Amino acid sequence: MTIDPTSIALIGVPLEEGSGRRGCAMGPAALRIAGIDTTLRDMGCTVTDEGDLKPLPARDVAHHPSANNLQLIAAFTRELSGAVYDVARSGKFPLILGGDHALAMGSVSGMARYAADVGRPLFVLWLDAHADFNSPATSPSGNMHGMPVAFFCGLAEFSPILPSDRPMVDPKRVYQVGIRSVDPEERRLVREHGVNVFDMRSLDERGVASIMHDVLEAVSTVNGLLHVSLDVDFLDPDLAPGVGTTVPGGATFREAHLIMEMLSDSGLVSSLDLVELNPFLDDRGKSARVLVELTASLFGRRIFDRPTRAA
Q1: In DSSP terms, which residues pair with 105 in a beta bridge?
Q2: Residues 261, 182: Cα–Cα separation, whole Å
Q3: b/e string for 214-236 if b means 16 or more Cβ within 10 A?
Q4: Does 57 have pLDDT greater than 80?
Q5: Which CATH topology does 4-303 take?
Q6: Arithmetic mean of pLDDT over the chain
Q7: Cα 211 from Cα 175, distance rounded (Å)
Q8: pLDDT over 70 for what percent of the chain?
Q9: pLDDT tens across 186-223, in order?
Q10: Residue ranges per domain, the chain?
Q11: Short-list 218, 198, 196, CA closest to 208
Q12: End-to-end CA distance of the chain
């Protein structure tokens, strides 16, 4: 069954153990309070809320000295991978409310399984300040929110979290936009494996529209599916301060909305992560509201349709 972008299933993932800092577990609640469900319904979408995942730690997975909180993250990965796959198979659009970026180990793996079922290649648009291409062998911190891309590309198989014969994502089908903080060894691996990286200098020199045209053409040429993973720190921290890994010089409000509008126009997006929102660090819900507005743009609301707020 094909995915209907007007039929959306919200999946909450209150995961903060991948980041090394508390607060992201409140992200799903903050996005709901900011009205992500009512906003999408007001646009004519059918929205079902699947609630929050609450897995128990995976005791069959051995602890790893350089993969912090591995048992719990493994459990979330397994449960989210299955939930995303089931939602996609039912014809609904999986919209994952995070939670730190370690959750993409599960969300992208679930979509890769679905894409293999329907015989279409999966591409990933990674909107983030960080490449997240570490493994326990290369990570300076051991925090697993810096490892999901390597994991779903099959390059961080350090523990039996998911079956080793599962569908993987080709690194050459990963497009990272907004990157501006990469570890030295991580930089080497990204280049070695052919990940497409458009850092903030690329955005400044080429512009968002040119880059997005290239990304969307690559996906459409082979009839691919596109998973979008949006980290709050993709945005400039003045715009969205509610994140524990702020990196100055991020995307502007208009750049982010243009990306979402072009994604909407393409009709290629099959799933979406909203990650790393830490309401404890936010300014009166500012970042949560921005994420809701960007999500609305992805589902068809244009900039001139936005309601005017009182000053």
Answers
A1: none
A2: 28
A3: ebbebbeeeebbbbbbbbbbbbb
A4: yes
A5: Arginase; Chain A (3.40.800)
A6: 95
A7: 10
A8: 97
A9: 999 999 999 999 999 999 999 999 999 999 999 999 99
A10: 4-303
A11: 198
A12: 46
Tokens linked to 76: 């979330």
Residue for token pair 């280049």: 191
Token digits of residue 242: 């509610």
Question: 92-98 and 4-13 as β-strands: parallel, antiparallel, unpaired?
Answer: parallel
Structure tokens, 73: 């993250």
CA distance 103 to 226: 17
Q: With the C-alpha atoms ordered 246, 228, 22, 280, is the resulting torsion angle positive or negative?
A: positive
Q: What are phi and psi of 310, to 5 degrees?
A: -70, 145
Tokens representing residue 219 in the block = 């996906």
Give the integer Cα–Cα distance in Å for 274 and 261: 16
d(CA 260, CA 257): 5
Residues annotated as catalytic are: 101, 128, 130, 132, 145, 231, 233, 276
Dihedrals phi, psi of 47, to nearest 5 degrees: -125, 125
DSSP state of 195: -
In the chain, DSSP finds a helix count (H) and a strand count (E) of 10, 8
- Identify the helix (H) or strand (E) that includes residue 292: helix 286-298
**Whole-structure pTM value:** 0.96
For the stretch 110-125, pLDDT in tens is: 999 999 999 999 999 9
Do 233 and 130 contact (CB within 8 A), yes or no?
yes
Show the tokens assigned to 136. 């326990």
Bridge-based pairing state of the strands 46-52 and 225-231: unpaired
Can the peptide bond before residue 267 be classed as cis, meaning omega within 30 degrees of 0?
A: no
Q: What is the pLDDT of residues 79-95, one digit of tens each?
A: 999 999 999 999 999 99
